[in-house]
Amino acid sequence: MNIPHGATIPLSLNTVTVKERWGLADCIEGCARHAIPGISPWRDVLHAMGVQAAARRIRDAGLVVTGLCRGGMFPAADPAGRAAAIEDNLRAIDEAHALNARCLVMVCGGLPPGSKDLPGARAMVREGIEAILPAARAAGVTLALEPLHPMTCADRSVLSTLGQALDLCDRLGLGLGVAVDVYHVWWDPDLEQQMRRAEGRIAAFHACDWLVPTTDLVFDRGMPGDGVIDIAAIRRMAEAAGYNGFTEVELLSRRWWGEEPDHVLAVIKERHAKSS
Amino acid sequence: MNIPHGATIPLSLNTVTVKERWGLADCIEGCARHAIPGISPWRDVLHAMGVQAAARRIRDAGLVVTGLCRGGMFPAADPAGRAAAIEDNLRAIDEAHALNARCLVMVCGGLPPGSKDLPGARAMVREGIEAILPAARAAGVTLALEPLHPMTCADRSVLSTLGQALDLCDRLGLGLGVAVDVYHVWWDPDLEQQMRRAEGRIAAFHACDWLVPTTDLVFDRGMPGDGVIDIAAIRRMAEAAGYNGFTEVELLSRRWWGEEPDHVLAVIKERHAKSS
Q1: CA-to-CA distance for A271 and A224, rounded, in angstroms?
Q2: Would you state the torsion angle of the CA atoms of residues A55, A60, A66, A68, taken in this order, to the nearest 10 degrees?
Q3: With contact defined as beta carbons under 8 Å apart, do A201 and A175 qualify?
Q4: pLDDT tens per residue across span A179-222
Q5: Which residues neighbour B148 within 8 Å (Cβ) at sequence distance 6 or greater?
Q6: Cβ contacts of B117 on chain A, cutoff 8 Å
Q7: Does residue B255 surpass a pLDDT of 90?
Q8: Chain A residues inside the 8 Å CB shell of B190
Q9: A160·B212 Cβ contact <8 A
Q10: What's the mean per-residue pLDDT of chain B?
């Protein structure tokens, strides 16, 4: 493969990366200060600012919203819980539309509390997506199904592989895409084949790194370059599949949450320049 | 599916389950005391007793050796390291033969230190297995390839899925089988299909449970029944694929290592009777 890299890959900041110290206004200003052209807000910081105000400030700052995090979390123990999840997802679609976000990132949800019924939870995910897809299509919001690492299967996402996400895309049709986060897919022996299959359907590309050792199942993601993931190789697969969009850095890390955010952004910029 | 269950599933104790307090002699006596008909030693406790003495005592106690843990760990940074791994695996084959073990469980190894070359590590695994397979065949020892949970990909096993293990079986031929540990495979959206494909090739069936939350990537496995894995459903898949052997309980758990081993064995027996 011989795709040229370099300064051509635009960078986006996922707000969770600095969530302990910065609200959305700080993130918007921080992106401008560090010349980071993309931003991907989580809904908690978005709601804190207000959706319309946020849309205006992000637009005024000239930032692209590479995604809104997150929709999903469909499985629930009872029909009322599942209906509430669908309602919340419809609000998220409206918010993604208001932000002109490239996609709404879907973290689909784990097993309902006390359940061991994995096929049942997967059916709830499929039904949830089916229920909101007409609204997403009407709003022009791409739902980016994000397979999450299998270690999150019980409590965050029964959608575990890119192949499984693409099966859902095939089944449910237009309006769906996938969010490829290298942290969640790097280990997959089927990755190359599924990335080819994802051609034209990659709506987001997320980067962080797998640390050795990893000391926490959720909050120990590594800064790109500090771990073992060949991020550049996976990015090349995405580009070969037609994706030329942003690389969004999304770190859930107690270690980096403890650092001064301007320093975190500087390190992200440096690593991104080095790896891309 | 309507396969009868009950007292018909024989139980085996993997020695790592009580490793903090019991050596191999204690485990052999404990199995006899608790009427557990199978045992699966790790090589550290085996070496501490001596292979010939262990083989004799296990035979005298009337126990079936459901597996020897473990061979594998092939990837290394240099040829000398890879050759040393192969030598060690040849010794493990001799030991499994001496114990009349149903299989040698293969934990294939992660990335060499400092490497991000996952395809390269997988090639080292394949080459390592190819190198030892003639000796395994000659000794009549089945090499049971154990896919490990993707969260172990960096440091323990680049063999992550049952499908990948069966691809290796297909490619390398006779003398290979798979070890199905529910902890490692329960999340896999392709599990049912791959379990069918595994027909006649399941050499071992391991059980423990996935806890919510899981607080450690290695040492927080749950006692069967304490987590979210539908162990009985996966066991039924194994039986539909022709496996009628032992269920081996293998717990790596700081919590259970702190308990009195006779209590641990009693709980295992009780849970096994309930779930099978």
Answers
A1: 6
A2: -20
A3: no
A4: 999 999 999 999 999 999 999 999 999 999 999 999 999 999 99
A5: B107, B108, B156, B157, B159, B160, B181, B184
A6: 230
A7: yes
A8: 161, 163
A9: no
A10: 96
B213-244 confidence digits (pLDDT tens): 999 999 999 999 999 999 999 999 999 999 99
> Residue B121: CB partners within 8 Å, gap ≥ 6?
B75, B109, B110, B111, B112, B115, B158
Looking at the complex, does the CB of residue A229 fall below 8 Å from at least one CB of chain B? Answer: yes
pLDDT band at B5 (very low <50, low <70, confident <90, very high): very low
Q: How far apart are CA B178 and CA B61, in angstroms?
A: 27
Q: In whole angstroms, what is the distance from residue B25 CA to residue B31 CA?
A: 10
Under the banding of pLDDT at 50, 70 and 90, the label for residue B276 is low
| Interchain proximity B150–A149, CB inside 8 Å | yes
> What is the CA A234 to chain-centroid distance, rounded?
15
User: A105 — phi, psi (to 5°)?
Assistant: -75, 130
Write out chain B residues lying below 8 Å of A117, CB-based.
230
pLDDT tens-digit profile of A61-111? Answer: 999 999 999 999 999 999 999 999 999 999 999 999 999 999 999 999 999
**Would an 8 Å CB–CB cutoff place B117 in contact with chain A?**
yes
Partners of residue A247 on adjacent β-strands: A11
Residue pair B213/A155 in contact (Cβ under 8 Å)? The answer is yes
Contact A71, A159 (CB under 8 A): no
Q: How far apart are CA B227 and CA B222, in angstroms?
A: 6
Task: Compute the distance between CA of residue B168 and CA of residue B145 in angstroms, rounded to an integer.
Answer: 9
Beta-carbon contacts of B37 under 8 Å, excluding residues fewer than 6 positions away, are B10, B11, B12, B31, B62, B63, B64, B246
Cβ proximity of B146 and B109 under 8 Å: no
B161–chain A Cβ distance below 8 A for any pair? yes
Q: Which residues pair with B207 in a beta bridge?
A: B249
